[in-house]
Amino acid sequence: MNYTQIAYAVAVADTLNFTEAAKINGVSQPTLTFRITKLEEEFGYKLFNRTTKKVELTEAGKVFVDGARKVVQRTGELEKIAAEQKKILSNTINIGLNNNYYHLGLTDYIAEYSISHPDVYINLITAGEQNSFGRLESGELDFSFYKKNDAWELPENIAWFPLTREKLYAVGKREIIGAEPVTVQALSEMRLFTSIRDNSNVIKVIEDLGLDPSEMIKPVKINLSSTFGSAGSLAFFDRGYGIGLCSEGLAKQLTDQGNVSMQPIEPEYYLNPGLIHIKKKLTPLQEDFKNYILKKFSII
Questions:
Q1: Helix 29-43 × helix 18-25 angle, to 10°
Q2: Which of 43, 51, 85, 212: CA 20 to 30 A from 233?
Q3: Which residues contact 279 (CB under 8 A, 6 or more apart)?
Q4: Are 164 and 109 spatial neighbours (Cβ–Cβ below 8 Å)?
């Protein structure tokens, strides 16, 4: 027994006509009759008494059809639920984001997109820069954001679209940072702290500046939210425990909140925040969202 046979039996019970039941189900009358006959053979009793003039339900058929109607009704409800979920999923954009990008106005842009596209479901998911690649590959994320220097290479399957260009700053207690740009030599004598969970990009920056990460970096055994500093790092800066490296926008956020100072690195060093996704053919909705964000940054 399968659902098709159950639906055929209900249609025959509703119409008491094999030809009409076949039309309702979009099959030929012989096909429907064959399926009903096979069902009756499986049960070992007749569901319908049929003559050349009329079709009637047997007593056993009435009992069966009563239960079969519930199956058909419930299946219809499940199909409706599945269709609604398909609509939601096809209209959903999953975006990885962390607080290193708030100063760029991304949350405002995403909110504007959501308001102008009321049928689109947008999921903002906290995602560190390093774990974004795997989450994009698994399909958990459709888009994420990643800061990189021009020279850095990304995995071959990752498409990256630069949004802007940000100068690198040293951030820390005023007495430590001073009032002049921080030279690489001065930086080498400072203690740099970062999260032990996500410091690979900081290491790249230190190496690019010609310094030894193992000599400079003193990981703190807590999660500082994300690479290149965060508002959660403020207490460490205030107390003079060390300095952080972050982009200009984030540095300004930090200096507005506490007794910390910011100075550019000398020679100048830049990081480029960008939108990333897996290299594949995007859906029309995904393509529309990507173009919307790029236009906001005057990239296209």
A1: 110
A2: 212
A3: 156, 157, 158, 159
A4: no
The per-residue pLDDT for range 175-194, each reduced to its tens digit, is 888 889 999 888 888 777 65
Residue 205, C-beta contacts closer than 8 angstroms, at least 6 positions apart: 149, 168, 245, 269, 271
Q: At what angle do helices 284-296 and 106-116 cross, to 10 degrees?
A: 130
What the block records as the tokens of 122 is: 């947008």
Question: Which residue did the predictor score with more confidence, 99 or 72?
Answer: 72
For 90-146, how does the pLDDT look when each residue is reduced to its tens digit (9 = 90+)?
788 999 987 778 788 899 999 999 999 998 989 998 887 778 898 999 888 999 999
CA distances for 12 relative to 17, 64, 142, 186, angstroms? 6, 13, 47, 88
Q: How far apart are CA 123 and CA 21, in angstroms?
A: 45
Q: Rg of the chain over CA atoms, in angstroms?
A: 32
Q: What is the pLDDT of residues 203-241, one digit of tens each?
A: 788 888 888 877 776 654 433 334 344 444 555 666 656
Burial classification of residue 74, based on how many CB atoms lie within 10 Å of its CB (0-12 exposed, 13-18 middle, 19 or more buried): exposed
Side-chain-facing half-sphere of 173: CA atoms under 13 Å: 13
Contacts of 56 (CB under 8 A, 6+ apart): 16, 48, 49, 50
**3-state SS class at 150:** coil
Rounded to 5°, the CA angle 63-69-73 comes to 160
178 token code pair: 């001073």
- pTM exceeding 0.70: no
